[in-house]
Amino acid sequence: MPVIFRTFNFVVRNDHLKIISNINFIDENLRMLGVQIDHKKHLRVALSVTFGYFSSLLFTLILDEVLFTNYLPDVKMDSIQGLFAVFNLASYLSYNISQMLIILTVQVRVTYLKKLLKLKNLSVTSLKVIRKAQLTLFDTMNSINFCYSLNLLSFFFQFTFFVIFFLFDVTYSALTIKSST
Q: Which of 8, 77, 142, 180 is the most exposed place for a label (fewest CB within 10 A)?
């Protein structure tokens, strides 16, 4: 699963660069209109989300260790299978973090553009700049949808099969241990 994420991200890397350059273009247009975006707030959100990500990953590792050593000691889990599960979870969570931060960034720009449109006495030049920023924002949203929709569909498909085979493995191991005793 992480290989598919990485491969697809490699294929759409130009779209990712386009998203970043579009956001920079929108920021420049907003600066021309006198709007300053608080990037420190974005940094705080990114750090808190990343902290939550690592905390959930650590919680998953601890839960895995407690569950299989204390409550299911007879079920033999391969360490490779456990690492694979953690690696998949880490890959998906990091992917979701990047997606969430990009969407948050776009949402902030939408908010600023809405505030600008509510102002009265805007000049024709200001309206043209706002319109150009809006069109760039729509283009950015289309790129975001393209980049992330196929990955999410792929993830849900793969996750379903992973859960099915994982539950089969645990059930089969438990039944094998019960039948041998």
A: 180
Distance CA 31, CA 99 (A): 25
Q: What are phi and psi of 34, to 5 degrees?
A: 95, 10
Q: Could you report the per-residue pLDDT of 65-89, keeping only the tens digit for each?
A: 666 666 655 555 555 566 666 666 6
Q: How far apart are CA 83 and CA 11, in angstroms?
A: 27
What's the whole-model pTM score? 0.66
Sign of the Cα torsion 18, 20, 26, 32 reads: negative
Q: Which of 111, 130, 143, 162 is nearest to 18 (CA)?
A: 143
- 120 SS3 class: coil
Length of the chain: 181
pLDDT in tens, 104-137: 888 889 999 898 888 888 888 988 999 999 999 9
Residue 75 DSSP label? S
Give the CA angle between residues 127, 131, 135 to the nearest 5°: 175
Asked if 98 and 45 touch (Cβ cutoff 8 Å), the reply is: no
What is the per-residue pLDDT across 124-177, written as a single tens digit (0 to 9) for each? 898 899 999 999 999 999 888 887 777 777 777 777 877 787 777 777 777 776
